[in-house]
Amino acid sequence: MLRNLLQNLIRKTKHDPGYTLDPDLPTSAIFIILRERGLAAMRGLMRRPFLGECGGRLFVGRRVQTLHGRRIFLGRGVTLEDDVRIDALSREGVRLGDNVSVGRFTVIECTGILTNLGKGLSIGDNSNLGDYNYVGAAGGVRIGENVLIGQGVRFHSENHVTERINAPIKSQGVTNSGIVVGDDVWLGSGVILLDGVKIGTGAVVAAGSVVTQDVLPYAIVGGVPAKLIKYRDGGVREA
User: Fold this and answer.
1) Residue among 15, 68, 156, 160 flagged as catalytic
2) Is 160 labeled as catalytic in the residue annotation?
3) Please, which contacts does 48-54 make with residues 24 or more away whose CB atoms are closer than 8 Å?
């Protein structure tokens, strides 16, 4: 009975009628998952009135912080895991699509300095931010649908101006072009994305890479800085 309850709950939340639990999943684990999910749903109900928009059921973990909640817009089935912090102060706010999950201890900061209000963050349906991610969205971060993001990934959509040597770097201002991640992308653990980069549809970025240039669709890149390794289908692309 508990197994069917959990399976049906996940199928409904993910809109995936084919979702099937592992037959070896013990009953004790199912009970714990249902208990924690129920508590998260209750916390979500209490949080919803303070948000700009929430399209459906919301699951909120322990010690979650949402600052400037009226600038947070959520779809259905969004999950904010334990110790997430979202500061949505920005021009466009934070927009999370259906079934988006934000992993534990992830920080989303949409404005770096109050003299220059940031742009904000948007994430498409069925995508996730892994545990311990940092999203600096001052220059704007746009993530597509069905994107897999590992642990410890960093988005830095703002850069310091450094040309003048007769003035402190911190007084020279910033530039921000934004970061764009296409649909069906996989960002491995520890990836760092710097301001101005675009990750093409279907691309894979290897764990620990630092992305300083655009990545073509369906490319697999890796390294510091990230360079082309191959393409997912073995084909050749023109730059």
Assistant:
1) 160
2) yes
3) 52/93, 54/78
